[in-house]
Amino acid sequence: MTVPIRRVGIVAKPGLTEAADLLLDLGTWLQARGITPCYETATAALATAPLPGDTRAAVTLGRDEQLMIVLGGDGTLLGTAGRLARAGFDVPVLAVNYGSLGFLTEVRSADIHAALDRVLAGATHEERRLMLEAIVTRDDGRTEPHVALNDVVITKGALSRMIDLAAYADGQLIAHFKADGLIVASPTGSTAYNLSAGGPIVHPGVDAVVLTPIAPHTLTNRPVVLPASAALEIRRVGDGRSEREETYVTFDGQIGDTLGDGDRVAIHRARHALRLLKPTSGAYFQVLRKKLRWAER
Questions:
Q1: Given 72, 74, 127, 159, which is the most exposed site by the fewest CB atoms within 10 A?
Q2: Do residues 163 and 236 touch, judged by C-beta distance below 8 A?
Q3: What is the CB neighbour count within 10 angstroms for residue 145?
């Protein structure tokens, strides 16, 4: 952190009433150090007492702030990261874990003051996590842009048969995948759905994306690691019965829509990365072992 911190945005998971006391405590702590706390509107409504500082709508929070504090689980961080990237707000994020896994949100609520002291002293390690921009182009030419931190997933409906998807990189055909779906994951998302589907773990420092088929019909269809500079495109291939088959595209598992014949999804590196502040550097494999029980015998 090289920019002086004058304003700090605070956003909590919707309905996180157990964070009510911390909201007041954080605001008081920041204000005592000459820093203005600024609460997201729905987050401020969780408080049981008047809060110091300002309140701002979610769509503008991060525009004038030099730091964002996110209270919640990994899902809350995913939503905040996507919103900041869509708005073009280049602000670092400190994530405080109130979830069950907390793979990305490593800071415990009991350690928030110590973590903030490190941030203000410029002693916190910052990781820039690659994000994905996906543009859905409909058969009629309409476009729908999205941003994801973890992954873009194309999958079949619950009662549908396997779907046929064609994947391209920089205009060249990679393969036709006949499978339950296809995952395009960032290094951060490699430990999410991608890992469950048999994809590789990719260190967040690697500049790459992973293409992983979900339950492919052909066992030779294996995950492939591609450079992050690649311009990917996924197309649904019609086969005469496609209108009866449901196909969905989702972004970080939070929002999504159906895909029809002729629709395509273009995926490339997003302009903005998530600036994730970490309490210590070099703890990635420790988190893997602790949170995912990776490489345990």
A1: 159
A2: yes
A3: 11
Task: Give 61's strand partners.
Answer: none
E-assigned strand segments in the chain: 7-12, 36-40, 54-56, 67-72, 93-97, 107-108, 125-129, 132-137, 143-148, 151-156, 163-169, 172-179, 181-185, 208-214, 224-227, 232-236, 247-251, 255-258, 264-269, 274-278
Give the tens place of pLDDT for each residue, 110-168: 999 999 999 999 888 899 999 999 999 998 889 999 999 999 999 987 777 888 999 99
With 0-12 / 13-18 / 19 or more C-beta atoms within 10 angstroms meaning exposed / middle / buried, residue 234 is buried
Domains along the chain with CATH numbers? 7-129+273-292 (3.40.50.10330), 132-269 (2.60.200.30)
Q: pLDDT-based confidence at 243, cuts 50/70/90? A: low
Q: Which residues are catalytic?
A: 74
Contact indicator for 118, 93 with CB cutoff of 8 Å: no
Render pLDDT for 190-237 as a digit per residue (tens, 0 to 9).
Answer: 999 999 999 999 999 999 999 999 999 888 889 999 999 999 999 988
Instruction: Tell me the angle at which helices 20-31 and 112-120 cross, rounded to the nearest 10 degrees.
Output: 30
pTM recorded for the entire structure = 0.92
